[in-house]
Amino acid sequence: MSPEVPRLALATVCLSGTLEDKLAAAATAGFGGVEIFAPDLVADPLPPAAIGERCRDLGLSVDLYQPLRDIDSTDPDRFAANLRRAEATFDVMAGLGADTVLVCSSVAPDAVAGTDRLAAQLHTLAGRAQDRGIRIAYEALAWGRHVDTWDASWAAVAAADHPALGLCLDSFHVLARGSDPAPIAGVPGDKLFFLQLADARELSMDVLSWSRHHRLFPGQGGFDLPAFLAPVLAAGYSGPLSLEVFNDVFRQADPVRTAVDARRSLIALAEATAHHGTGGTGGTGTDPVATPAPRLGGPAFVELAAGPELGRVLRALGFSRTGVHRTKQVERYRQGDATLLVNAAGPHPGTGSAVAAIALDSADPTASARRAARLCAPPLPRATGPGEADLAEISAPDGTSVFLCRTDSPTSWAHDFVTVDEPPVPGTGIHAIDHIGLTQPYDAFDEAVLFHRTVLGLGTVADGEYAAPFGLVRSRALADDARRVRIALTVSLLRRGEWGPGVADPQYVALACDDVLATAAAARDAGVPLLPVPGNYHDDLAARLDLPGPTISAYRDLGVLHERNAGGDYLQVCTELLGGRLFLALVQRTGTHDGHGWTDAPVRMAAHRRSRLARSPAPS
After folding, report:
1. 472 CB neighbour count, 10 Å cutoff
2. pLDDT of 1 above 90
3. Is the CB of residue 192 less than 8 Å from the CB of residue 235?
4. DSSP structure class, residue 530
5. Going by C-beta distance under 8 Å and a sequence separation of 6 or more, which residues neighbour residue 167?
6. Each residue's pLDDT tens digit, 538-579
């Protein structure tokens, strides 16, 4: 049995749209409560009482109203004015039906420095709040003028010693400062009034900008959130797990999709934290869900939506056509352990050839499907013909279908294909699918990372950025521990205008071989359109790696790209685009190289553009 997930809440600041849009999205995603951000309320035409009623109609509690800023002051007149401002806030909360308000540590020049005086002012504020049936949740901003760590905020709260005053702990403010969350376990649970959760990538910038623009949902960044949440729960915190995520992409994306992704992240975090430090899967860093993903045996197949020319290319690459689907226009091609399906119904409208589906062999497909449903990715309804395998199908954030199957079962998908009476094609040395490369929509990259980590149980093996010919590209590679399944995700970091002369949203399947030179030579001789690589690249490569002259000559001849790191080498030869945005790559790894050729990606992208333009008809 999976552990029970606590009540989940979401700050309206996480989502795009008006307050009405945000509340509807939170309810649709299944949240039980919200934090209402004051600017969202101020921009709404309804009075607070009507907003509160709307929340209740949607099944949402208003768990927090926020923020009340810069309350303490060394100027008595200003502190009095701040108390009047607080009373107005309490009036708003009475209409909303909210009983907890977030008070941030002050950043104002007149902020109180001494703990005793600060505690006295917080005690005064808490007294007024208590008279209204309201609690004060005091939070240390990581950039606060005097109070910028959780332990400093706790010192003030403890010194104030008022029953209506407690802490709000925000994982970003704690972890971005490098504070140790373990001592939180020693804070009395009844003094932990509220909890806000956010993840983030490690970035070199001022903490204010980092917080206001680059927060992420749990599981999308690099913070160890189970190690943060575990001591909070151990202290006796019993309130909701709430997300406060400031993110520029989320605030312009579909609010319902963002809210669903947010809920998935909290479910995964709650389950991971339940096993934190116990030796369970939640502590490995590769599977953030306590109910572990069944072991994956690798890609059962990759389905490509393409025209008939792709079949000819696959034969030239040494793939034999081994079957046709009983009811669909789908052909099966196989070489070694690599199986590719070609959907002869044709390319996707508007995008050309593309990766349509990825099937993953699971030790327990039923358990994999249950796990997906628990993590907000329920299996899709599928129409199947008589006697056809009923595969569990879920949709990745970019629309790619993911099938969860077991090839060696009596009801395997393989039985949906009729064996063709054709002589096998001589192989070229391809023995497996190394990885699949998928470019993500601008709004979906972080959602895709979380989907693959939680739903499929993959872990991050590489995370980086590179300067491509048409803008900065972010990349994240994910894999299972045994490296049977590897998926490389990329996204352009900025939306482009009308001028975007690169290949839009490229996708590829990387095919593993033991001797890329021999495989590429055989493929070229059989007519596979290999991608030409500029001579300048190989001149530079020869200088950097001190390779023998005959090797460089072979590289020039075949268009080999060569990446080296401390673990070993990664060699790849790419085809030209095979209709639209799809290409294939022949790859060879040596040693323990765990990369995906990102060092050479800008060279490959520029070469694909030249190749595409060379094949395009000249304007009349």
Report:
1. 12
2. no
3. yes
4. B
5. 137, 138, 139, 150, 153, 154, 157, 187, 191, 192, 193, 194
6. 999 999 998 999 999 999 999 999 999 999 999 999 999 998
Tell me how far apart the alpha carbons of residues 288 and 219 are, in angstroms, rounded to a whole number: 7
Residue percentage of the chain with pLDDT more than 70: 94
Joined tokens for residue 272: 């991971």
Q: Could you tell me where the DSSP H helices lie in 205-254?
A: 207-213, 225-234
Specify whether the CB–CB gap between 225 and 217 falls below 8 A.
no
504: helix, strand or coil: coil
Buried b (16+ CB within 10 A) or exposed e, 540-554: ebbeeeebeeebbeb
CA distance 408 to 403: 15
In sequence order, the β-bridge partners of residue 127 are: none
Determine the number of helices (DSSP H) and then strands (DSSP E) in the chain.
Answer: 17, 26
Distances (CA, A) of 177 to 158, 161, 294: 21, 26, 37
Which pLDDT band holds residue 495 (cuts at 50, 70, 90)?
A: low
Confidence of residue 348 (pLDDT cuts 50, 70, 90): low
Q: What does the pLDDT look like over 460-475, one tens digit per residue?
A: 999 989 998 888 899 9
For the cut 80, the answer to whether the pLDDT of residue 585 exceeds it is: yes
Phi/psi of residue 300, each to 5°?
A: -70, -40
In angstroms, rounded to a whole number, what is the distance separating the alpha carbons of residues 432 and 405? 18
In whole angstroms, what is the distance from residue 477 CA to residue 198 CA?
22
Nearest CA to 493 out of 465, 452, 469 is that of: 465
**pLDDT above 90 for 47:** yes
Element (H, E) at 273: helix 255-274
pLDDT per residue as tens digits for the range 179-234 = 999 999 999 999 999 999 999 999 999 999 999 999 999 999 999 999 999 999 99
Give the number of other CB atoms < 10 A from CB of residue 152. Answer: 17
SS3 content of the chain, % helix, strand, coil (to 5): 35, 25, 40
Question: Residue 189 class from Cβ within 10 Å (0-12 exposed, 13-18 middle, 19+ buried)?
Answer: middle
Return the closest-CA partner of residue 202 out of 189, 214, 187, 190: 214
Task: State the pLDDT at residue 263.
Answer: 97
Burial annotation 47-73 (CB, 10 A radius, 16+ → b, else e) = ebeebbebbeeeebbbbbbbbbbbbbb
Contact 380, 424 (CB under 8 A): no
Residue 168: strand pairing partners: 194
End-to-end alpha carbon distance in the chain: 67
